[in-house]
Design a protein that fits this description.
7-stranded mixed beta sheet, two-stranded antiparallel sheet
Length: about 210
């Protein structure tokens, strides 16, 4: 007879056995606070933006305003353009010299999550063109699954891993790669993401 987990057969019926409650894994501090500590630990210099959704993933971006390019855009009356279809035309050969300059540099992208799989899923798409890192609770870091799978995959994609300690500290479990990957601003998706970050940066720190 097949049996359902947590049940035993008793007199032709089933008796439900009590299961031990497993405490939920929680972050020891707000995500933005942990992300700021991780960025400082990784040496990322720039402005930390509020959590935003890019490519359908909720991430925290650290960016730097390029003052000369921003000043040029102000003079041209060229605010951030977040319409993806419009930005996709900027990389056409016939548009050369007719589009505003990129006014921000994306320093890195962070994901803070209670689970390492969710965090990696969020930042891996960004790891091919910028620094990427995840922050997870230290209680997760001791599990075999974390040691065997998370760190291996993070190393494969070049993602730094930090753990949030219970006393509100962040420690580095895996360092970032030595060099930031090359960024092709002629790729329309990357250019569009810079416009999204530019808009968020101006909304966060009016320049």
């Amino acid at each position: 007879m097949s049996r359902t987990t947590g049940q035993t057969a008793v007199d032709g019926g089933f008796h439900v056995l009590p299961t031990r409650a497993v405490p939920a894994v929680e972050l020891p501090a707000p995500a933005e606070h942990l992300a700021a500590q991780a960025a400082e630990l990784l040496g990322w210099r720039g402005i930390m933006l509020p959590p935003m959704t890019l490519l359908g993933r909720k991430v925290i971006v650290v960016a730097e305003l390029l003052t000369a390019e921003h000043a040029e855009r102000v003079c041209l009356g060229a605010p951030p353009v977040t319409d993806r279809t419009t930005v996709s035309t900027w990389v056409w050969p016939e548009m050369a010299g007719r589009v505003p300059p990129t006014a921000v540099r994306i320093v890195g992208v962070l994901a803070v999550s209670r689970h390492w799989r969710s965090a990696l899923t969020s930042v891996v798409p960004f790891a091919r063109f910028t620094n990427a890192a995840v922050v997870v609770p230290s209680t997760v870091a001791g599990a075999d699954d974390f040691l065997l799978n998370c760190l291996m995959r993070a190393r494969q994609y070049g993602v730094a891993v930090a753990t949030a300690e219970e006393r509100d500290g962040v420690e580095l479990a895996m360092p970032a790669r030595a060099e930031q990957p090359a960024m092709d601003l002629q790729e329309s998706m990357i250019r569009w993401m810079h416009e999204m970050v530019y808009e968020q940066l101006l909304a966060t720190v009016p320049a």
